[in-house]
Amino acid sequence: MTLTLSERFTAWVVDDSPMEAEAVQRVLEASGDVEIFLDGATLLERISLAPLPDVIVLDWMLPGSSGLEICSFLRLRWDEAELPILLLTARGAKADVVEGLSAGANDYVSKPYAPEELAARVSVLVRLRRAHLRALRAESEVRQRETDYRRLTDNLPDVVSRIDHQHRHLYVSPSVTRLWGLPAEHYLGKTTVELGMPANQVAAWNAAVDAALRGREASMHFDLSSRGGLRHFHSRVVPERDEEGNVVSVLCIARDMTSQVRAEQALRESEERLRLALEVGKIGTWDSDPRTLELTCDARATVLFGLKPERKAHPDHLYEPLSPEDRERVRAEVDKALVGENGGLFASEYRTPLAADGIERWVSVQGRVFFDGQGQAVRFLGTVRDISEGRRQEEEARQMAEFQEKLVAIVGHDLRNPLSAIQVSAALLARKLGEPSLLRKLHVISTAADRAGHITRDLLDLTQARLGGGIPVRPQPCELHAVIREVAEEHHAAHPERDIRLDLAGTAEGVWDPERLAQVVANLLSNALNYSPPGTPVEISSQRHEEELVLRFHNQGPPIPEEMRSRLFAPFKRRPERSAGPRDGLGLGLYIAERIVSAHGGHIGVDSTELQGTTFFVHLPWRSPAMLVLDPEG
């Protein structure tokens, strides 16, 4: 394409005379966008930040660096084709012209100049630069096409080969190396027999090639061993013709179908596993089209939904066997899924009292709605499972648990009053009777009543935790070390032969329920005394942290069995090994302690080894959640 001055170009004019620079601008501005620079330094700064102009019109005489020096500097980076430079000079001697061109100028114009000459010379330089850029782009495109072709050939998973009339390979693509480890040149000039193709596949290969040599396309499947094991190929064989239409060779494109074959095999195996899983799990499947209201159910789903096998299924038929309450609920849940609520997921449980086989069932239905690009429901599918037995077991378990909890509550309340009477009466008699033998008997009565009282209290706490909504705590400002010392003194009075050691530095003032935490300390201290050898110390220590207070209850003795640790804080769980002594509890102490600590926003941990003994850690935040009542399920 011929460039004319009517096509916009960019020209930078460098001249220390604003008047002469503007004169050049007037000549060029009709066809180009002109930017003026009054010195070389400004030009050099600009050219380092902006795209190159189409041409630079450079005055010979400039302040500071001359035009020749600027030209020489620019040529260190850009050649004459990349950045054309037209030199303006009032020096017309041949030596000056030679000097200017030697410095790197493409052309020059002597002052004074004719505007037409300046415009013509600039136009020539712009055309030359544009032609150079087009050549560079064309060269780049050619290189890119060559690169793309090589990349396509080198990375094409298909094996492309050209076969002559003697069944010899004229060309094989590089992909063959990845499959068999041999260079493509290894195959040239050889037939499939010479290359070792199995005899049972050679006949099929030759038949396909012969058909293509006769002008017909052919295809075949074959299996070959490779470095990665047995691979499966599908080959398409087509004739290659010359200008006269004669078949001169055959082009074979062998596609590696191994992944597809393996995927199909895996799909078949997966479908078989799914079928077996559905069969074992007694799960039915269903599929529907919300647009056409077509419903498809397998045999099990038909029975579980209470549908009639001889009747064409319709989504509305699913609601017919349901009770009025279930019908409205399930229909509303389906409608929500169909409009995309909860991501189109559907889950519901209901009874089918009018099932086709006459059996009342509970079923669990799970499904998902799929939507098109416009948000319209196009498919709704899922599973249905018979959960009647699970429902029955849940109801039986619920009734049994309710019976047990109510029984515990009744026993706890009924025992508390007579035990209180026994304790009060024993205390009154002890004050009036001074005979040692009677006092010992009263002590036995009082101790037994106290033990029964602890059991009753634990039963009532369990009842509150499991039925009453949790163990209530009433936080208030208190000093916990004083609580611990008081509990330790009570236990030492009951066990004077045991060494109870306290390491409680300073004070521990926080917002807790002192009575409940005294119960925690008592339970953990009793636990440590019960499960440690006689004559060994039991230690209680505390450690202050910024966010919490940590209590440690340590005793020596055998470690807690590993299988017990996961259920150590469950109710009615007792470690099998313990020191000699009466069984004064129901295995509720650790459970109640853990519930109380959790109600304070803390937690209990345990570390138990043969060498170090057993340590229970109680982590208590300095401020408990106000009047928190713990969820009975934790």
Automatic annotation (TrEMBL):
According to the UniProt entry, its GO molecular function terms are: phosphorelay sensor kinase activity
State if Disulfide bond is listed as a keyword.
no
Which keywords belong to this entry? Answer: Phosphoprotein
Q: Where is the PAC domain?
A: 216-269, 346-399
Q: Its Enzyme Commission number?
A: 2.7.13.3
Domain Response regulatory, first and last residues per copy = 10-126
Q: Which residues form the Histidine kinase domain?
A: 410-624
Which InterPro entries did the record assign? CheY-like_superfamily, HATPase_C_sf, HATPase_dom, His_kinase_dom, HisK_dim/P_dom, HisK_dim/P_sf, PAC, PAS
4-aspartylphosphate PTM sites in chain numbering? D59
User: Residue limits of the PAS domain?
Assistant: 145-216, 270-341
Q: Does the keyword S-adenosyl-L-methionine apply?
A: no
For this protein, the record's PROSITE patterns field holds: HIS_KIN, PAC, PAS, RESPONSE_REGULATORY
The chemistry this enzyme catalyses reads: ATP + protein L-histidine = ADP + protein N-phospho-L-histidine
Q: Which NCBIfam families does the entry link to? A: sensory_box
Name the chain's protein: histidine kinase
Q: Which organism is it from?
A: Stigmatella aurantiaca (strain DW4/3-1)
